[in-house]
Amino acid sequence: MMNSTPCKILIVEDDPGIRMFLKTTLSTNGCEPLVAATGREALEMITSHCPDCVLLDLGLPDMDGTEIIKNVRAWSKIPIVVISARGSEEDKARALDLGADDYLVKPFGAIELMARIRTAIRHTVTVVDNDGIALNGLCRVGELTIDYRKHRVFLSGRDTGLTPNEFRIVALLGKHSGQVVTYKAILRELWGPYATHDNKILRVHMANIRRKIEPNPDEPTFIFTEVGVGYRMADCD
Ligand code: CA
Question: Could you tell me what percent of the chain has a pLDDT over 70?
Fold first, then answer.
């Protein structure tokens, strides 16, 4: 998938049906799937096999998946993509704030799965110099260009006139393009660790940003809302 060496992906899932779907999809896409059905097994396999990415179901028979995230994040940046049930926004946000890289909501398709894994691995590989690249360069998503040097965002070459705070939000989402960024992470990044976790202010900013950058603010094409969790910018070109 990433290069000629097959990617090792650990599947942590107790549902045999989903496990089989994941295993088949990964093999078909040139990855080497490893499988764990319990949290204990997962922790053992993560330390012994050092997979390139972990697909993690949060509802495991012997422990909560978030325990695995906490444990792994204490010593490793290995990409973790959470597999979650629909409607558990709080769990998703919590998993992301604990250090998971992204999540997939069941049911999902093969294309979505492979895209999430690719993005999660890419961000981990470039995390060291991501700031450097971003601060000196551009992020292009279709007709939208984030210019990190000029602190401007252009739509089809025209300055969109974002305020400094609006720019900071778009710049942050651009650095994590393709990945969801939680409300908490945005507030913390913009206004520091003691910022009040009031999502209302973000929603106001986002409405203004969309009016300026989206051809149709009601049907966003650059920044998507992940209900109850945060925002996701479309993948950079
Ligand atoms: Ca489960």
Answer: 90
pLDDT at 199: 83
Confidence label for 39 from pLDDT (cuts 50, 70 and 90)? very high
Residue 95: helix, strand or coil by DSSP? helix
Instruction: Calculate how far, in angstroms, residue 196's C-alpha sits from the geometric centre of ligand 1.
Output: 33
Given a contact cutoff of 8 angstroms between Cβ atoms, the answer to whether 178 and 168 are in contact is no
Specify the residue for token string 């939000």.
169
pLDDT band at 132 (very low <50, low <70, confident <90, very high): very low
Rounded distance from Cα 36 to ligand 1 centre (Å): 12
Model pLDDT, residue 126? 56
Give residue 60 CA to ligand 1 midpoint distance, Å: 5
| Whether 65 contacts 84, CB under 8 Å | no
Count of CB atoms situated within 10 Å of the CB of 126: 14
Contact at 8 Å (CB) between 230 and 93? yes
Coil, helix or strand for 123?
Answer: helix
Q: What are phi and psi of 208, to 5 degrees?
A: -65, -40
Residues with CB in 5 Å of ion ligand 1: 14, 57, 59
Q: Are 212 and 162 in contact (CB under 8 A)?
A: yes
Q: What is the mean pLDDT of residues 7-12?
A: 95
C-alpha of residue 237 to centroid of ligand 1, in Å: 35
| Spacing, Cα 59 to ligand 1 middle (Å) | 4
CA of 150 to the centre of ligand 1 (A): 47
